[in-house]
Design a protein that fits this description.
By secondary structure, the chain is mostly helical. The chain is about 75% helix and about 0% strand. The chain starts with a helix and ends with a helix.
C-alpha cells in the first residue's frame, strides 16, 4: 500500500505541476497559487464538516500550519529560480528536496534493505535526469541556485511535516484543511505585497474574465495538489518514509511525460533515460 499511495502522489503532483505550469503562462504565478488553493480550501472545509473532522483537532495540527507556511515560500522561490536560470538546471535541482523526508526517516531509525537502498539511488538519479539537466551551455546565476535549493528544502519539509500532521483519515482531512487555510493566508499576503509594489495580479489579457474561464483548471490544480498531500501522508503512515518519499518524488517524470503527450514536446535522450531509471528504481523499491 505504501508504494501504491506514493505512486499516486507522484501522478497527482506531476499532473498538478503540469497544469500549474500551463496556467502560469497567462496568469500570474501568485494568483494561480491563491485561487487554486482557495478552491481546495472550500472543498476540504465541506469534507471536514461532513466527516466531523473537527473532533481530531490537537497539537499535531501545528505540523500542518508549518507545511502551509513553508509551501508557498518554496513555490515562490522555485518560480523565481525558473525566471533566473535555465529550466534544465533548476528543475532537476528542485527534486533534491526528497533528501529531507528521507533524512528524517533515517534519523528516526529506518534502515532500507539492500534492494530498497539501490532503488532509492536509481530512482533519485532517474528523477534528476528526467528533468533534462543542462550539463553545458547557459551559465547559472548563483541566486538561481540558492533559490532552487531553498525551494527543494521547502518541498521536502512539506512532505516531512504533513506526514506528522495526522494519524487518522478524518484527522488527515482536518490537517489538509488547516494547511490550505495557511497556504491561502500566506499566499494572499504575498499577493497583496506584490500588488502594492506594482506586480501583476490579473492576466494582462482578459482580466477577471480570464480567471473565471480558467476556474476549472485552477480547481484541478488545487485539488490534485491536496489529494497528493493526502496520499503521501497515507503512504508515509503505512510504510517506511524513505520509500514513500522517493516514490512520491517521481512527479517530474509524470510532468515530462504529460508535456510529451499533450504538448508534443520532444523528450531529450537524457530525459528518456531518466524515466527508464525511475521506473527501475520504482520496481526495486516496491519489491524490496
Amino acid at each position: 500500500m505504501t508504494a501504491l499511495f506514493a505512486l499516486a502522489t507522484s501522478l497527482l503532483w506531476g499532473l498538478a505541476d503540469f497544469g500549474g505550469g500551463l496556467l502560469t503562462r497567462r496568469v500570474p504565478a501568485l494568483t494561480v497559487v491563491v485561487v487554486s488553493q482557495s478552491v481546495a480550501t472550500v472543498v476540504l472545509g465541506a469534507i471536514v464538516v461532513a466527516t466531523g473532522g473537527w473532533s481530531e483537532a490537537g497539537p499535531q495540527l501545528w505540523f500542518a500550519v508549518g507545511a502551509g507556511v513553508v509551501g508557498p515560500v518554496a513555490m515562490l522561490a522555485f518560480y523565481k529560480a525558473l525566471a533566473l536560470g535555465p529550466m534544465g538546471v533548476v528543475s532537476p535541482l528542485g527534486s533534491l528536496g526528497v533528501a529531507v523526508p528521507v533524512g528524517v526517516g533515517l534519523v528516526l531509525g529506518e534502515r532500507p534493505g539492500l534492494l530498497q537502498f539501490a532503488g532509492i539511488l536509481v530512482a533519485v538519479a532517474g528523477v534528476v535526469l528526467a528533468g533534462g539537466p543542462q550539463l553545458r551551455g547557459a551559465p547559472v546565476q548563483r541566486q538561481a541556485v540558492l533559490l532552487t535549493l531553498l525551494a527543494a528544502f521547502g518541498f521536502g519539509a512539506v512532505m516531512a511535516l504533513i506526514a506528522e500532521a495526522s494519524t487518522t483519515l478524518t484527522g488527515l482531512f482536518l490537517a489538509l484543511f488547516v494547511q490550505r487555510v495557511t497556504n491561502v493566508a500566506a499566499g494572499g499576503a504575498a499577493l497583496f505585497v506584490s500588488a502594492k509594489r506594482g506586480g501583476p495580479v490579473l492576466p494582462e489579457q482578459g482580466g477577471w474574465s480570464a480567471i473565471r474561464a480558467g476556474l476549472p483548471a485552477l480547481a484541478f490544480v488545487g485539488l490534485a495538489d491536496v489529494a497528493a498531500n493526502g496520499t503521501y501522508s497515507l503512504a508515509a503512515q503505512r510504510g517506511p518514509v524513505t520509500v514513500a518519499a522517493v516514490l512520491a518524488s517521481l512527479y517530474p517524470v509524470i510532468t515530462a511525460l504529460a508535456a510529451r503527450g499533450i504538448l508534443h514536446e520532444r523528450l531529450r535522450g537524457v530525459q528518456a533515460a531518466g524515466a527508464g531509471l525511475a521506473l527501475v528504481g520504482t520496481v526495486l523499491l516496491a519489491t524490496g
